[in-house]
From TrEMBL:
Signal peptide: 1-30
NHL repeat positions: 75-105
Residue span, Teneurin NHL domain: 68-117
Keyword annotations of the record: Repeat, Signal
Full protein name: Teneurin NHL domain-containing protein
PANTHER family listed in its UniProt record: NHL DOMAIN-CONTAINING PROTEIN (PTHR13833:SF71), PTHR13833
Length: 368
């Protein structure tokens, strides 16, 4: 064999070895095409949650006292609802005179009070009694505050029920019109200041001192007054207060602002105008907003009773309806807007979900 033939043969062997090495490398590394994370996980990314209305716990048409999971549990005219840092819900089960807890999985237990017994007793949660629990709020330490007739009650994480403060009333009230001044809504800020509403006032209670934001400190001579109308109140992450005020508007109050006549700024609605129209600012109409909640983006959500709607108010004052059919009397689950009945309480988890008391149930609204 000539030297040229030997050289050509060596070159051929080198090429074959290089090709084999390249094939081995490709086999070890795959097909060499970059893959994104979804391909590595074996499929497309999961679809976004579908906007919908569903029952978390209870049955909207059946009253009862039973603890349990999901629709096996029973409530009786639940009203206020609040959420803690772990996603547990707390419900003022008004008709049963108790406070209930709902886990994120929908398991319902009784926190304090005795079903069917209306009374005023402080003490351990098993022995404590409530007269007329209307609304609840939870602070960062897990203390639950309850608006109970003319008192604010507290339930500590250690299982003790106490009375935080009582609300003063004027003359001619105890003679049969107490129901006109009982507390309708409650909120608590990061500094444990409490904000409460009834038919005649909005107040901030801090360390035992009361500041009137609107209305009257005491009410005298209640002959001929209207029936009790609870009004919603809520706080955002900056401690701005939102309230359905005495003129039937949703207003914002900044705790760092001036205390005086003009300390509340109207966000939406018109003075003493009723209705269900969506719109911007004073073009929108509400009927009776009994509860409010605020999401991390500053959107306010309103439980608009009588209309039986859930309304959204943006920071710019744009009002839209996100759930419910105007003046519906039945609950319809499924795709939004669905329908709601006897809307009484609302809270957001800050993750795109709202929880609403409707009839004898607690419903979950997944927003788009």
């Amino acid at each position: 064999m000539t030297r040229r033939a030997v050289t050509d043969t060596a070159r051929l062997r080198l090429k074959l070895c290089g090709a084999a090495a390249l094939m081995l490398l490709c086999s070890a590394c795959g097909d060499g095409i970059p893959k994104d994370k979804d391909d590595e996980d074996g499929g497309d990314p999961p679809p976004a949650p579908v906007a919908a209305l569903s029952i978390l716990a209870g049955d909207p048409t059946i009253e009862g006292t039973m603890d349990g999971a999901g629709t096996a549990a029973r409530f009786k005219s639940p009203r206020g609802i609040a959420i803690d840092a772990d996603g547990n819900l707390y419900v003022a089960d008004t008709g049963n005179f108790v406070i209930r807890k709902i886990t994120p999985a929908g398991v319902v237990t009784t926190v304090a009070g005795a079903a069917g017994t209306s009374s005023f007793v402080d003490g351990d949660t098993g022995n404590a009694r409530f007269e007329n629990p209307m609304a609840v709020a939870v602070n960062r330490r897990g203390t639950i505050y309850v608006a109970d007739n003319l008192r604010i009650r507290s339930i500590t994480s250690a299982g003790r029920v106490g009375t935080t403060t009582s609300i003063p009333i004027g003359s001619n009230v105890a003679a049969g019109r107490v129901t006109s001044v009982v507390l309708g809504a409650i909120a608590v800020d990061a500094n444990d200041n409490l904000f409460i509403t009834n038919s005649y006032s909005t107040r901030r209670i801090s360390g035992g001192d009361t500041l009137m934001l609107e209305g009257q400190s005491v009410v005298n001579g209640l002959t001929g007054v209207s029936l009790f109308e609870p009004r919603g109140v809520a706080l955002d992450s900056n401690n701005n207060l939102f309230v359905f005020d005495l003129e039937r508007e949703i207003s914002r109050w900044n705790p760092n602002g001036f205390i005086g006549v003009n300390n509340m700024i109207t966000l939406a609605g018109a003075p003493n105008a009723r209705g269900s129209s969506n719109g911007v600012g004073n073009a929108a109409r509400f009927e009776q907003v009994v509860a409010l909640t605020v999401d991390p983006r500053g959107n306010v959500y309103a439980a608009d009773a009588i209309n039986n709607l859930v309304r959204r108010i943006t920071p710019e004052g744009v009002v839209t309806t996100v759930a419910g059919s105007t003046r519906s009397t039945t609950l319809r689950t499924g795709d939004l807007p669905g329908s709601l009945a006897d809307v009484r309480g609302i809270v957001t988890d800050g993750k795109g979900n709202l929880y609403v008391t409707s009839g004898n149930a607690v419903v979950k609204i997944r927003l788009p």
